[in-house]
Amino acid sequence: MPDVIASDSPYSITERDVLRRVAGILIPASEEYGVPGADDEAIFARILGLASERAESIRTVMEALQTRAKERHDANFLELNGAQQTALLRDGETSRFLGQMIRCAATAYYEDGRVLQSIDLKSTPPFPGGHEVEQGGWSLLDPVKARAPFYREARKKA
């Protein structure tokens, strides 16, 4: 997927700010492990790309989140303190939004090389990465070749 630039995003600046704040609440940075939070610039760009595929449903539920923030605190979501924001996100009515954001945030977060390095995983595909496959004799396949087929033949069209 190509990089998402602000003008390509289906979200307004305020909506992106809300999404970034939610991502940071879901996966905060950790000084102990030396990893960024999901609101990190590179990770969040990937989250935006993933969330763009579900833009309509995310936007609908995000509007409801903003409405609840206004009703309960007479403020926008971003104007609330961390505890108030977390309480709104834990509200059962936001579970669909939160589920979508958790999937997007976790996917983007665990694709980041810094995060993978912190849990001792390579950020490259496993092959070709120096894994050697032992060459065996082709005769090992003889029992498979000799076995009767266990699948159905496709019907011939009349």
Describe this structure in words.
With 158 residues, this protein is mainly alpha-helical. The chain has one domain (6-124). 51% of the residues lie in helices and 0% in strands. The model has no long low-confidence stretch (mean pLDDT 86).
Task: Give a nutshell description of this structure.
The protein is mainly alpha-helical. The chain has helices at residues 13-26, 41-52, 55-73, 82-90, 95-109, 113-118, 142-146.
Number of structural domains:
1
Distance between the termini: 44 Å
Proportion of residues in extended strands: under 5%
Q: Name the overall outline.
A: elongated
Query: pLDDT under 50 segments (min length 5)?
Result: none
User: What is the N-to-C succession of helices and strands?
Assistant: HHHHHHH
How many H/I helical runs?
A: 7
Keywords, separated by commas or semicolons:
elongated; mainly alpha; 158 residues
Please specify the SSE layout and strand pairing.
Blueprint: H1 13-26, H2 41-52, H3 55-73, H4 82-90, H5 95-109, H6 113-118, H7 142-146
